[in-house]
Amino acid sequence: xxxxxxxxxxxxxxxxxxxxxxxxxxxxxxxxxxxxxxxxxxxxxxxxxxxxxxxxxxxxxxxxxxxxxxxxxxxxxxxxxxxxxxxxxxxxxxxxxxxxxxxxxxxxxxxxxxxxxxxxxxxxxxxxxxxxxxxxxxxxxxxxxxxxxxxxxxxxxxxxxxxxxxxxxxxxxxxxxxxxxxxxxxxxxxxxxxxxxxxxxxxxxxxxxxxxxxxxxxxxxxxxxxxxxxxxxxxxxxxxxxxxxxxxxxxxxxxxxxxxxxxxxxxxxxxxxxxxxxxxxxxxxxxxxxxxxxxxxxxxxxxxxxxxxxxxxxxxxxxxxxxxxxxxxxxxxxxxxxxxxxxxxxxxxxxxxxxxxxxxxxxxxxxxxxxxxxxxxxxxxxxxxxxxxxxxxxxxxxxxxxxxxxxxxxxxxxxxxxxxxxxxxxxxxxxxxxxxxxxxxxxxxxxxxxxxxxxxxxxxxxxxxxxxxxxxxxxxxxxxxxxxxxxxxxxxxxxxxxxxxxxxxxxxxxxxxxxxxxxxxxxxxxxxxxxxxxxxxxxx
Length: 540
What we know:
By secondary structure, the protein is α/β, with parallel strands linked by helices. The protein folds into 4 domains: 20-124, Orthogonal Bundle (Arc Repressor Mutant, subunit A); 145-265, Rossmann fold (3-Layer(aba) Sandwich), CATH 3.40.50.10610; 280-392, Serine Threonine Protein Phosphatase 5, Tetratricopeptide repeat (Alpha Horseshoe); 399-540, Serine Threonine Protein Phosphatase 5, Tetratricopeptide repeat (Alpha Horseshoe). 53% of the residues lie in helices and 11% in strands. The chain contains 22 helices and 12 strands. The protein has helices at residues 46-56, 65-72, 83-95, 133-136, 161-175, 186-190, 199-206, 250-278, 285-296, 302-318, 323-338, 346-362, 367-379, 383-396, 401-413, 420-430, 437-450, 454-467, 472-484, 488-501, 507-512, 519-535; strands at residues 20-22, 25-28, 33-36, 62-64, 105-108, 112-115, 145-148, 152-153, 182-183, 210-219, 222-231, 237-246. The strands form 3 sheets. Strands 7, 8, 9, 10, 11 and 12 form a 6-stranded mixed beta sheet that branches. It is globular. The two termini are 42 Å apart.
């Protein structure tokens, strides 16, 4: 997903496989470099490069100041904010022959800015479309590019228009927080409200890969909202969801619908892009990253982690600065170290911290990287600091369910397992069909097991396995709780299932992987060790 260059809130722009040349300059959008034809490198800040990238991928189009403010500073409702003008001025001084009389980045009075560098003559300005020579050179729809088409008010009640528009606007905002997503601004999307333009045409005109459309219908005290994700190029329906709820607080309902749709689309995007990547004859760094994340979403068994590690390693060979691949590689090392797979977890924890630190240095506002760093801190006896990272992630993406679930895990390490379930419940509320549901349920089960509530723990852990049975440690904790309940035959059966997924598991390895020196946590962990012994776990 490296075609994201984060500056403030700017999101991804189109992937370009060839250098773009204009006015004696060569810009590589893959290598993040700008140079003169002579080979002299022109240094740009991240913000300047992100702005240049936006211009060269939209040649001849007027980009409004509101769009730029929304993309770069999330301040589109502050009309007197001049930060974009300052940034444009800095970029002009580096690429224009005469910055005070710009010919490449042209001011369009009352509208915004237009990039004329790729137009061969003035008569072509504004006439470049999806069939232009520029597009044929590689400027196709960006990965994870989407427009939220204005939701239709099926009932026809004009009073419900505000609700339909509110859902559309909120989804546009929430989807823009997905790392790597390029989301068309609301103004451009609402230009299609009420017309019957074909979705394929919308995709071509807006240069996006996906269209999210929906409808709102109210009747008999209930509100029904239908949502569909469509591949713009083919018109194929990739995912659909229906919400049918009693009308109460419309704003609360809107927030719930938006959070659930946005969270579900994260997983749908990864799966869709991974399928595309699997068919690519020469996958690039981004393709490999998507494939790695698709594997991680299937579970955290040793085999799956090894497969994901291979994808991320290949991605980083192609592009050492791929933020998503750095986070993925860090997650793999972290999971191998933390879940009783490695003999000595310390080198893996160190490697994970290195990868995640590099990712955050490149993209400080990367919520996923913040969550991964928080988990690393939790697993290495720094749970208080881990919670701080989860709170930072929530400040970036307030509807991110994993941060809530991870706070529940952190509370176990701090000896406060009784607080875990509330955090897990919040994660489940925000994203009940999330790929991580099994993980949150496993933490809720672990907390109940540590508290001695083994009957409840068994229920939570079995639900986790029902959702995703690929991860060995869930079986081990289930076996321990069953043994404490005296159900030894069941305990041995679950232990065998766990060992089939991780044959290297032993009690000494489990003991060595303690994540905290909190005395309450350590005492509760001894209870799990006792249960594992009763179930017949190997001692060496």
